[in-house]
Automatic annotation (TrEMBL):
Parts of the chain that traverse the membrane: 29-56, 76-97, 104-124, 130-151, 163-183, 189-209, 242-264, 276-297, 309-328, 334-357, 394-417
Sequence ranges assigned to domain Major facilitator superfamily (MFS) profile in this UniProt record: 35-433
Pfam (any one): MFS_1
Keyword Membrane in annotation: yes
InterPro entries per UniProt: MFS, MFS_dom, MFS_trans_sf
Protein name: MFS transporter
Tagged with keyword Transmembrane helix: yes
Biological classification of the source: Bacteria, Pseudomonadati, Bacteroidota, Cytophagia, Cytophagales
CDD domains hit by this protein: MFS_SV2_like
UniProt keyword annotations, A-Z: Membrane, Transmembrane, Transmembrane helix
Compartments it resides in: Membrane
Top-rank taxon: Bacteria
Topology relative to the membrane: Multi-pass membrane protein
Main localization, broad class: membrane
Native source species: Hymenobacter frigidus
Length: 433
């Protein structure tokens, strides 16, 4: 008889480690489980707080005394690097904790940390304070998505987990749109207060979510080593697979961290007929991401292939990067924002990328990979920014610099997908030796 791990017994209210599938088969057909709902709302708040600085960058820095255009760009990139650097550290920290202590502990520990950091962000009086708090917030922001996707992937049937992560992504990325609206209506300080408050309110929902049964099963096996980050580098096959997973997510953060965050600078370089704002560019990009995440997840389910859906979206992204850089010279701001919307659709494979990361590795390393992979991809901005600056100087402008850097990230990501094992429908109930 097959067994299902970690399901709550509906009759007695306890959580046994083993239970016959027949006793709990009806709930397995429901995609909208408590784990999916909490992970989706957590990602919503995560994206709100993650992207909020890009939305309020200019307003907040001017309020702190930074007025020169060049300094606004330099200080803004510095603060982005601090936030993304925090996410690199947090990705490792939360990933290891997720495999050692559990998915739920990371899901809510990370939400608590970034919520408190963002509330504190509303009180800053200097760029230095701003930078350190963005670092702390980045550490907190690093844990939510990976833990949520891992929990959802391990809680749903293998044929339906793609739908679950699709819901998480579609709901989650819309947090950027709320961030834009709040930033515009309430001001940058209040926008940070709202983000922190939303995160703290979300913690109340923890009581409705149960730990992953797969994790509980492995946790009971004392001979299994869990959360050993260094073991990803000791096996050549495992290392190669891990590095290819990381490379898939880099193009999205090239688009968001360079093209969209620096929309005002690109708008001037493209000779647009009016000024554009980073906040509105982020809004339209993430509005597009809502649709992109939905369609990429749905396609991967329809085609029974994660890799095929990823390849299609990478090609789509390459086309739209070309349109953004070379197809809107002298256009109106409205046209530019329209391109940002479609560009956002083209990089709407983010949750699919994290799902693939979770599906590629065993239960004792799954949270480590699913948490470090998106944060290393986000943290790639730390390397993309100086590369972008160098190429822009060497090639005589930000347009050719961005074109070369974008082409490089997209080609490498496409190769990574082509050589990665297909993971759709894979049984996740195993451990890495």
């Amino acid at each position: 008889m097959p067994w299902q791990f970690g399901r709550k017994c509906p009759s007695f209210g306890f959580n046994p480690r083993l239970m016959p599938v027949q006793a709990v088969s009806p709930p397995k057909y429901t995609v909208f489980t408590a784990a999916v709902i909490v992970a989706a709302l957590g990602y919503f708040v995560d994206i709100y707080d993650l992207i909020l600085f890009s939305i309020v960058r200019v307003e907040s820095l001017k309020d702190l005394g930074v007025t020169a255009a060049a300094e606004l760009t330099d200080k803004g990139l510095f603060l982005i690097n601090m936030q993304m650097g925090g996410m690199l550290v947090g990705g490792i920290l939360w990933g290891i904790l997720g495999d050692k202590k559990g998915r739920l502990s990371v899901l809510f520990g990370s939400i608590l940390l970034y919520s408190l950091a963002n509330i504190a962000n509303g009180f800053v009086t200097s760029v230095e304070q701003y930078a350190w708090l963005r670092l702390i917030a980045g550490i907190g922001l690093a844990g939510e998505l990976g833990a949520g996707i891992t929990l959802v992937s391990e809680s749903l049937p293998k044929e339906k987990r793609g739908y679950g992560t699709m819901v998480v992504a579609t709901v989650g990325v819309s947090g950027a749109m709320l961030g834009y609206w709040v930033g515009q209506k309430l001001g940058w300080r209040n926008a940070y207060f709202v983000g922190g408050g939303l995160g703290l309110a979300l913690l109340v929902l923890r009581v409705s979510v149960f730990e992953s049964g797969m994790f509980q099963q492995v946790q009971a096996q004392t001979d299994v080593v869990r959360g050993n980050f260094l073991s990803l580098f000791t096996n050549p096959v495992r290392l190669g697979k891990y590095l290819r997973v990381l490379l898939i997510g880099v193009p999205l953060w090239f688009v968001v961290g360079i093209l969209v965050t620096l929309a005002p600078e690109f708008g001037r370089a493209l000779g647009l007929t009016g000024e554009v704002t980073a906040g509105l560019a982020v809004f339209w990009c993430y509005f597009g991401l809502v649709f992109g995440d939905f369609f990429s997840g749905a396609l991967s389910q329809y085609w029974h292939s994660r890799n095929k859906a990823l390849q299609v979206f990478l090609v789509f992204c390459a086309v739209l990067v070309g349109v953004y850089l070379f197809g809107v010279q002298g256009a109106s701001p409205a046209t530019f924002y329209g391109v940002c919307f479609v560009l956002g659709m083209s990089v709407g494979f983010w949750a699919l990328f994290v799902t693939v990361a979770a599906e590629q590795f065993g239960t004792n390393l799954r949270a480590t990979v699913a948490t470090t992979a998106p944060n290393f991809a986000r943290g790639a901005v730390v390397g993309l920014v100086p590369a972008f600056k160098y190429l822009s100087g060497a090639l005589g402008g930000i347009i050719p610099g961005a074109a070369v850097l974008g082409a490089l990230t997209l080609v490498v990501a496409f190769w990574a997908v082509r050589t990665l094992p297909e993971s759709y429908g894979k049984d996740l109930n195993y451990v890495e030796e």
